[in-house]
Amino acid sequence: MDIRRIAVIGGGVMGRGIAYTAALSGYHVTLQDVSQDALEKAEQYIAAELNASVGKGYIQSDQRNVALENLAYTDDLQNAVKEADFVIEAVLELMELKTEIFKQLGLFAPHHAILATNTSTMSPTEIAASTTRPEKCVAMHFFNPVHKMKLVEIVRGLDTSDQTVEITRRVAAAMGKESVEIHEFPGFVTSRMNCLIGNEAMNMLMEGVASVADIDKALKLGLNHPMGPLELADLVGLDTRLRNMEYLYKQLGEKYRPSPILVKYVKAGRLGKKTGRGFYEYTK
C-alpha cells in the first residue's frame, strides 16, 4: 500500500515533532488537536524549526517551502483522518483517552488506513480492541526530539498483521528512522530500562548521594549516556514520566514504584523544561 497522507492526532511536543518530520519527509500531513492554542503553538514551532534548519544549512529553502505546503491544521478529528492512509495518535499517556480516540478513528478513518499509537508504555492490544480493525493497529514509539532521534520502536499488538508491521517499518524508514520490532510487554524495551535508570537517579538525589549535575555527569562520562537521566526526565516532562512510572508500577510491580521526589515535583508544578523548572531551572 502506498502511503501518501498522514494524520497526526495531538499537537503537543510529540505530535508536532512527528508532524514536522513527516512533512519534511514528503508526506502530506494533517495535524489535529482539540485546542486551537495548541495548534497555533505547533504551527509556530514547526515554522521556526524549519527556518532554523535552513539557517544552519541542514535543509534547503525549497525543502522548507514544500514541508510547509504539506502541512494542514484542524481541530476536527473526522476531517483530519477522512483521507488518511496512516494515522499516528500522539496524545497524553492516558489509556481512557487513547481508547476513545481509537474508537473514533475506527469510525472515521478509511478502511485501508493503518492506526498507530505513539506510546512509550501502553498496550497496543488494549488500544486496538476499541476499533473494528485490530489487525491494522500498532504502536509506533517515537523519541523526543523526534526530528533528531533515530529510533522508532514498532510494537505488535495481539492481532497486528505482518502487513501492518511492514508498512509501519517503511513509513519509519521514509522519515529517516531506524526501527526495532517489539512483541508487546509493558514498557517495551527502552521505557522499561529508561524508567528504572531515571527513577534510581531520583532516589539517589533524594538520599543525598550526589547533586543533580553530578549524577547526570557521572552517567554521561562514566556510562557514555548522551544525556543524564535527570536532564532527560526534565525534557520528557516530569508529569509524563510519573504517568509512565505509575502505569509500569501497576503492570510490573514494586521495582517501578515512582520515586517520592518525582511525585513531589509534579505536585509542585515543577514539570521540567516545559514549565521552566524541574530538576534544573531553565530560562528562555
Provide the helix percentage. Answer: 40-55%
Largest sheet: 8 strands, mixed
Q: Name the shape in a single word.
A: globular
Portion in strands:
5-15%
Span between termini: 44 Å
Structural class: alpha/beta
- The number of helical segments is 12
Mean pLDDT: 95
Oligomer: single chain
Please state how the strands of the largest beta sheet are arranged side by side. 3-2-1-4-5-6-7-8
Order of helices and strands: EHEHHEHEHEHEEHEHHHHH
What gyration radius follows from the Cα positions, in whole Å?
Answer: 19 Å
Number of E-type strands: 8
Poorly predicted sequence stretches spanning 5 or more consecutive residues: none
Features:
6PGD_dom2, globular, eight-stranded mixed β-sheet, 3HC_DH_C, 12 helices, alpha/beta
Description:
It is a single chain. By secondary structure, the protein is an alpha/beta fold. It is built from 12 helices and 8 strands. An 8-stranded mixed beta sheet has the order 3-2-1-4-5-6-7-8, sandwiched between helices. α6 links the parallel β5 (114-117) and β6 (137-141). The radius of gyration is 19 Å and the shape is globular. Residues 187-282 form the 3-hydroxyacyl-CoA dehydrogenase C-terminal domain. It comes from Fodinisporobacter ferrooxydans. InterPro entries: 3-OHacyl-CoA_DH, 3-OHacyl-CoA_DH_NAD-bd, 3HC_DH_C, 6-PGluconate_DH-like_C_sf, 6PGD_dom2, NAD(P)-bd_dom_sf. Pathway: Lipid metabolism; butanoate metabolism.
